[in-house]
Design a protein that fits this description.
This protein is of the alpha/beta class. The chain is built from 18 helices and 13 strands. It is 38% helix and 16% strand. α1 packs across α7.
């Protein structure tokens, strides 16, 4: 197997749920060694990352029976090894410090102050391990009046403005705020955290100096408002929900067609003229109200009904064939069965099959990163809880006696 771009980078992953695990899975796909630290099973706690139990659906074994491994967990934790350590115990804290001294990166998403109580905060570990890149992921960051609040993707989508621009218009049926169908604040934060860690590693390799990375879901949510955030700062007028339409481009939305719905995404005036020619209404492209995008946006309420009437006259297949032939952006609205059957998705290798201990043919979504010299790789299936505890601790030079003592004390699982 070709060595990954991050081969030789060791990551101590104390994160759970989605933002942190998404970050560390990306690092792992790129070749880093990721050691996932999870809570041991206890009398009142099943142990492990919370998402192990976030089902159904659960992974089925080769006999077709549900296991205890939720699909949610499987989707964010491949290429990792699982170690169970109780970091609330002094012996567990000492073990984390021992491991951090031989790692390049530590990622955690505990609430602000929790790690300091354990003596595992960035200030303490960077003092002991000055080359370490220490990444904290929280809802609101390490500073500010909200820093001690728990942060959840759904609440962040609301507080960060995304739900104010997502959903149908208030004056139409079904209008009102909507969250996005996947946890985008978590996912974007995980990706921004990955970028930040790589930048910090670049700096560390050049200077020998590690650093703290402070990632917040709210910060990320505000940043990812992108053009809509810029629209507000330029005008001081808060944009509103536009349903499936675009705030700045017309026509750029979902249209009903004879046999369902499709997306028309006209990005410039030339494309609009081509669309009008295909639709049999070339006069609209010459109309001064519609010839330029800025005017189309201003006259949206007049233009869109005219286009909607045209769109309903043909099937999705007819529209897609005709518009693609002249280079007008458009597309179907697929469900996930359509997506994973799509020849382009299949050609791009967007699923991966691996041998899981409970199922020899586990299929998951693959990484989208394509590198010519150092391709991503799938080396390990998502781990069982504590599957690699003894293996990993031996690599950190713990003796069999030490491991046995920690297990007897309930510090490790």
């Amino acid at each position: 197997m070709t060595p990954g771009a991050l081969q030789g980078v060791r990551v101590l992953d104390l994160s759970r749920v989605l933002a942190g695990p998404w970050c560390t899975q990306t690092l792992a796909d790129l070749g880093a060694e990721v050691i996932k630290v999870e809570r041991p099973r206890g009398p009142t706690h099943p142990g492990g990352d919370d998402t192990r139990g976030w089902g159904p659906p659960f992974l089925k074994d080769d006999a077709g029976h549900d296991t205890a491994e939720a699909a949610y967990f499987l989707g964010a934790n491949r290429n990792k090894r699982s170690v169970t350590i109780d970091i609330s115990r002094p012996e567990g804290q000492a073990l984390i410090r021992r491991m951090a001294a031989r790692c390049d990166v530590l990622v955690e998403n505990y609430k602000v102050g929790d790690m300091a109580r354990y003596g595992l905060d960035s200030a303490a570990l960077l003092k002991a391990c000055p080359r370490l890149v220490y990444c904290s992921i929280t809802g609101f960051g390490q500073t500010g009046p909200y820093r001690e609040r728990a942060g959840y993707d759904y609440a962040i989508q609301g507080a960060g403005g995304l739900m104010s621009v997502t959903g149908e218009r208030d004056d139409l049926a079904g209008g009102g705020p909507q969250k996005v169908g996947v946890a985008v604040a978590d996912l974007f934060t995980g990706m921004y955290a990955t970028v930040a860690i790589l930048a910090a590693l670049r700096h560390r390799d050049a200077t020998g100096e590690g650093q703290a990375v402070d990632m917040a879901l709210l910060d990320t949510q505000v940043a990812m408002l992108a053009n809509l955030g810029a629209n507000y700062l330029v005008t001081r007028q808060a944009p509103r929900r536009a349903g499936n339409a675009h705030q700045n481009i017309v026509p750029y939305q979902v249209f009903e067609v004879a046999d369902g719905h499709m997306i028309l995404a006209v990005g410039n005036d030339s494309q609009f003229a081509k669309f009008c020619a295909v639709a049999g209404c070339p006069e609209l492209a010459r109309d001064e109200r519609f010839a330029r995008n800025a005017e189309r946006v201003r006259h949206r309420e007049t233009l869109v009904p005219l286009l909607a009437q045209r769109m309903r006259q043909r099937s999705r297949g007819q529209w897609l064939a005709a518009l693609e032939a002249v280079g007008v952006p458009c597309g179907p609205i697929n469900d996930l069965a359509d997506v994973f059957a799509d020849p382009q998705v299949r050609e791009r290798g967007m699923t991966v099959t691996m041998q899981h201990p409970l199922n020899p043919a586990l299929e998951l979504v693959a990484s989208p990163i394509k590198l010519s010299a150092t391709p991503v790789s799938v080396r390990r299936p998502p781990p069982l809880l504590g599957q690699h505890t003894e293996e990993v601790l031996r690599e950190f030079d713990l003796s069999a006696q030490e491991i046995g003592h920690l297990r007897e004390r309930g510090v490790i699982g």
